[in-house]
Amino acid sequence: MIEIQQLTKEYRGKKSTVKGVDDVTLTIKKGEIFGIIGYSGAGKSSLLRCLNMLETPTSGKILIDGVDITKLKGKDLRHERLKIGMIFQHFHLISSKTVTQNVAFALKAAGKSKEEIERRVPELLDLVGLGDKGHHYPAQLSGGQKQRVGIARALANNPKVLLCDEATSALDPSTTRSILALLKEINRTLGITIVLITHEMEVVKEICHRIAVMQNGKVIESGDVYELFARPVQPLTRDFIDTVLHFSLPDKLLENRRGTLVKINFQGEIAEKAVVSEVLKKFNVEGNILHGKIEYIQDEPLGIFIMELIGDSQEIARAIEHIRQRTAGLEVLADAA
Ligand SMILES: Nc1ncnc2c1ncn2[C@@H]1O[C@H](COP(=O)(O)OP(=O)(O)OP(=O)(O)O)[C@@H](O)[C@H]1O
């Protein structure tokens, strides 16, 4: 439904030109929650803001349901933009207006009648769990409640796409979870496609179906979130995943090891874990499990074991190959000492 083709966004300064987005091609499917992750300066905001033309791309196309929005201007662009809602890290509410007036503002801007606005605003506030807060001003709300107003406002005109710009970065962990749960619910019940940018892998793990990892304006890796957790290719993707899986083996353990250290991913099936005992019987290697845990990625279990394999190097290589072929992935963390 959203096709980004060879998109580039350059910022031209007096002395130099910065490529915020550098030749990005991506397809975002209808009804999915798509995450774009990267460190500061990777180009996430630039890419997201091109999707509703808050930034004008330098080159490339953005097709939304087949319409290239980069070609639109004036009334046509305003009309197309109504299909795309957006929420922000710092909410961007109008402080002098009540919650009801903030949400009504989006409907007014779209030319909706007074009757329709009066009918729609309470509906939207109920949807985000703020049915009793209509007369409050933003200053009287918590961060999570402010973001709920932002979500109600973004959904006012029944968009097909919701863009989320670091929507939970200013919130504490428990409020973050409640806002992510609301976004998930909106995606499920209203079928709205959600594109979110974040620098937190926890957010991705919690709600995204697919993700793209950005670095220096480019997408360096993309795919199904479970697949990327199980089989990351790029070092940067691994770094992000490590922030969630928290694998740091004590230095002492690394120093004292005798064998090859491997990390094995299991697709959560107990049967797969039998592979390890099978290997120990089949090959002449000794194995010590040093660490094990199960993470839930989108409610699907991903088991992770760290093992030390001790034995003849050829035999270890055969054992590794055997495990690799029968599990969700194996990574050699350190060769035999
Ligand atoms: N308006 C602008 N003028 C000039 N350069 C810009 C502008 N906006 C972004 N850039 C540059 O484009 C690159 C990508 O920035 P962008 O804000 O898109 O990254 P980001 O991944 O969203 O980072 P952050 O999370 O810090 O916002 C950076 O090098 C940034 O300095």
UniProtKB/TrEMBL annotation:
Record InterPro entries: AAA+_ATPase, ABC_transporter-like_ATP-bd, ABC_transporter-like_CS, ACT-like_dom_sf, MetN_ABC, MetN_ABC_transporter-like, NIL_domain, P-loop_NTPase
Source species, domain of life: Bacteria
Enzyme category, top tier: hydrolase
The EC number(s) this enzyme carries: 3.6.3.-
SMART domains with a match to the protein in the record: AAA, NIL
Record bears the keyword DNA-binding: no
PROSITE patterns, per the entry: ABC_TRANSPORTER_1, ABC_TRANSPORTER_2
Key word Heme present: no
Keyword terms: Amino-acid transport, ATP-binding, Cell membrane, Hydrolase, Membrane, Nucleotide-binding, Translocase, Transport
One GO location term (cellular component): plasma membrane
GO BP, sorted A to Z: amino acid transport
UniProt-recorded Gene Ontology molecular function terms: ATP binding; ATP hydrolysis activity
Family: Belongs to the ABC transporter superfamily.
Designated name of the protein: Methionine import ATP-binding protein MetN
Organism: Aneurinibacillus soli
UniProt lineage: Bacteria, Bacillati, Bacillota, Bacilli, Bacillales
Gene this chain is encoded by: metN_2
